[in-house]
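Appendix B, Record 12. Input sequence as logged:
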Amino acid sequence: MSTVGNPLLPGCYPDPSICRVGEHYYLVTSTFEYFPGLPVFRSSDLVSWEQIGHVVDRPGQLELDGVASSGGLYAPTLRHHEGVFWLVCTLVDHREGTRSGNFVMTATDPSGPWSDPVWLGVDGIDPSIFFDDDGRVWLHGTRLVEEPEWYHQTEVWVRELDPQAMRLVGPEHVVWNGALRDVVWAEAPHLYKVDGTYYLLAAEGGTEFHHAVSVARADSVTGPYVGSRGNPVLTHRHLGRGSEIVGVGHADLVQAPDGSWWAVLLGMRPYGGYHYNLGRETFLVPVGWEDGWPVLAPGVGRLSPEVEVPFAGPQRPGLAQGRTSGVVRPDDLRWTSLRGPASAFATPRGEGWDLRMTPGTLSEPVTPAFLGVRQQHQDLEVRATLQAELLLGEEIGLAVRQSEDDHVRMAVTGAEGGTGLRATAVHRSKGVETVLGTVLIPADAQAPVTVAVRARGQEYALLAGTAGEELVTVAHADGRTLDSVATGGFLGLWVGVYGTSNGRPTSTVVQVHRLEYLPVD
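Logged structural output:
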């Protein structure tokens, strides 16, 4: 027996979906505008997880350029059937005339390569797929009701999918509007068949404080579905905003080889007040069955910081769980860029990268020269050593990113008169930039510099200095202005290196000697 620490995947790994194939479990989460998209994880015991790839990992699969922050890839569902992995997901792009909607992708190896998307011709969010034991395949998803009885009323629909033609066939069936009347965003539906009965597991209440898990069952896949009298079967909203975990919901069930049942789901861990800078994270909860209904966290009724898994071995540290610190090397699958592949502007070199500066900035919905990793710990230091021959108007540095409109930069530019380098801490809040502090680095303009972010709870210290020397604190930023409670959207924070010419043509190459991620226990 082993005890797993919750969350399974700390940091911004929301909307988890899970399936089991033989002795292994596979899990995927949302990524919104980040690239590569939809990370795939594998475990043999539900306790120790390793990332094995991404579903969206090459140019041409999906077009994310121009997608605003918290748009992009929402709520995937991962399933396996007869040797093939199936993933259905939604691309959300609110710009007129762009591709968005539900799509399906397949692979025989979950680490890739995955197929190009097949668009299903339906809108809405949170599609899921169910393979019945009679050979029929059913797609289901969520959308807003056209003529709602209440604000943000949604409906869950079910329709058959022809798996050869990859198109929907037959009539559509609307089967669910939520367990409670006046509930907002009945979403994240998943269908299962257990002992001949069909179960519909869904979220409701919105993916924030009032989030919840509800369940219904039916004798036919198309309904009618009857909700459990125990709905919601799991929520933390009654615990108040002071609970150590809030926003619990968006669950997916899986059965272990020993017959036990488990659920992965998302939740948030507030700190420094009602703020959750790490975003929506992936948690694990045991599931029992009583009177023909699933009971999540039996005997406890809430997520716990630790869960005992009887069949698991000792928990092993893993990069995906943020339990390994030190230099983040180029082959680490935690690296992400924005909207497009990093190969467009970066080349691995030793422990770091050659970063080809671009005119695009972090304030635009483009693919800037940015490489980052999720913030996975409340207390940590991230430091990067950079070197470049900077021209007028060019900028390199380290950013704590929420979105185009909300981020903090520890920026390095050439000083006036070629007298060294200038380090400037900038806070961009709701699209308005404020200089928090600035210092002169008395070094050769082409010398390596080190920039760092030191987070202690909600205080983010921004530091800079000559590489190898003691760093100077340039300013402090308030992390409570950066999380999604303050800014809106669905994302946690990323920390990463960047280089921009701020709209000017450029051929400057930034040498990223290394980036270190150093959590404080």
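The chain is about 0% helix and 50% strand.
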